[in-house]
Structure formats: C-alpha cells, structure tokens
Known about the structure:
By secondary structure, the chain is of the alpha/beta class. It has helices at about 15-25, 50-60, 70-75, 95-105, 120-125, 125-135, 150-160, 185-190, 210-215, 225, 280-285, 290-310; strands at about 40-45, 65-70, 75-80, 90, 105-110, 140, 170-175, 200, 220, 230-235, 265-270. The strands form three sheets. It has a five-stranded parallel sheet with strand order 9-8-7-10-11. A four-stranded parallel sheet has the order 2-1-5-6, sandwiched between helices.
Amino acid sequence: MKHFLSVDDVDDPMMLVKEAINLKSHPLVYDDLGIRKVLGLIFLNPSLRTRMSTTRAAYNLGMNVMSLNMSNDSWTLETEDGVVMDGNSIEHVKDAAAVMGQYCEVIGIRSFPSLKDREDDYGEHLIKYFAQYSGVPVINLESSTVHPLQSLADLVTIEEMKKRAKPKVVMTWAPHVRALPQSVPNSFAEWMNRTDYEFVITHPEGMGLHPKFVGDATVTHDQEKALENADFVYVKNWSGFEHYGELKNDPSWMIDLNKLKNTNNAKLMHCLPVRRNVVIADDALDSDHSVILKQAGNRVCAAQAVLKSILM
Ligand code: CP
C-alpha cells in the first residue's frame, strides 16, 4: 500500500480486516518491522482515539512516533496554489510537506473541513498535497470527507460480532448541537458498500450524504422502519451536504433503549466522542447493546494493519 487516504487505496478491504483481527490476537509478531523508522502524526484538529491508537499501533511495530499539533505549535499552512501569501498563512503546505517527509518514513495527518465551502472541502487539497509533496506514504487520520481508519475499525468490530453472514447494518443520523463533518458517515458508507452486508441509511429529509458515498445503500427517512431487524445500529450526526454545513438538531432522532427493541438485539455503534443524551441516551449507551468501547479498542489493530501494509 502506498498511501491510505480512503478505501480506494485498499485492494481487498476484507483481507485488511482479517489482517487487523490477526494482529489483535498477536500484536507483537511484527515488532521489529518498523525499527528505526519514524511515524509523524500531524494534527490540525483535536483527537483522542486516533492519536493514541495510531501511536500504540506504531509502537507495536517497533516504530518511533513524533506528534505535532499544527494549530498550537506550528505555522499556519496555505493550501492554495499561486497565491500571494500576504495574509495569515505563513508556510505553504508544499514546503511543509516536503520538509516533514525528510524527517519521517510515514506521515499521518488530520484536517477537518471548514463546512463553509463544499467544493473546497470535497477537493481534499491538504491531504492530497501531503501525498504529492512529502515523498513518503501518507495515512488519513480523518480528512475533510473521510475517516478510513475509523471505518476499518468499525468493520473489524462488525466482523468480530456478527451472528449471521450478511448482517443488516443500519446507519442512522442523530441530533447534535454543533454542525459536524460528514467524514465518518461518508467513510462508513463507502466501506459498507465494499461488503456484502445489507446496508441501510436513515436520516431526516434534506440530510442526505454525497451520492458517491451512499452508493447502493437503501435510504429511508423512516428511522423506526429502518431499525427493524437490524443487527448493527451505527449512530452518527452529520451536518447538511445539500445545504452545506447546515446544523439540524431534531431530538426525536436520538437513539435510546426503546428504539432498539425492534432490532435483532442490535449492537450499538458510535465512533466517539459522543454527547450523551443528545445523540444517544444513557440507557442505550450503558446497555449490553453498546459496543462503543470495543470499537475504540479496535482502532489499534486497524491502524496496525495499515502501517504494516505500508511498511512491508
Ligand atoms: N473517533 C475518533 O476519530 O476519535 P478522535 O477524534 O478522538 O480521534
């Protein structure tokens, strides 16, 4: 694997899932693969799980890790080509990426969308610049439109927990108090569309995702109907794609224990962080349905499978 920017960089996603599950059982089998190699983790936005799980994955492979918080500790990057840099940006991403590529064998980068300019966000300029100019493999730690490390961990979780070969997986929109990116639901949909599972997306009218990510999924605005007989319920808020970045906060879409009653004893999933009793009620999050901690744990083996594939 050269870069890991999205599922499109993976020849066989289910093989990568199997590799992650193997590494989870034997995390130190390849503990010298990355010796004397450095993973640079660059964050333009906050992170708990991605930062710590990817660091741990690198350690399991013998790598060293350097982490940089761009927003506090480095220069503001320019991402437009050919501009007169007389504004707030101090360093062009072309130069910064080329410099960092000399310090690291692999670079991971996180950069959220502005949610103001859809064309610009969906152009994914920053991560593409890093892939183009750093000269080393680049891992997406969540970009403007996708979060593939999260989706890989989600797929690992489903494969570990499924009770039938082709489970019904439902991704439901949920309310929130802030406008959030579409990266997690886009990515989850994109990865689900590479499986043979039954995949359903449910959201209020006007909250549809970009069609290229929705793909062949069944889409319905009837949450109750969607949840019937579900094996997995993936809960996530996202802001508008059509009315780009628009916040919607409809509390009737919050998932609680009662809503899981008509499922097939569904496992409840969320990428975290989750606002309790806004997105999902305590009674559901603290019930036996919840696999949110397992999901978060699986971030390590998912990242390790990606790093291993890049290093080999
Ligand atoms: N799910 C996830 O990516 O968590 P962090 O934002 O804490 O990394």
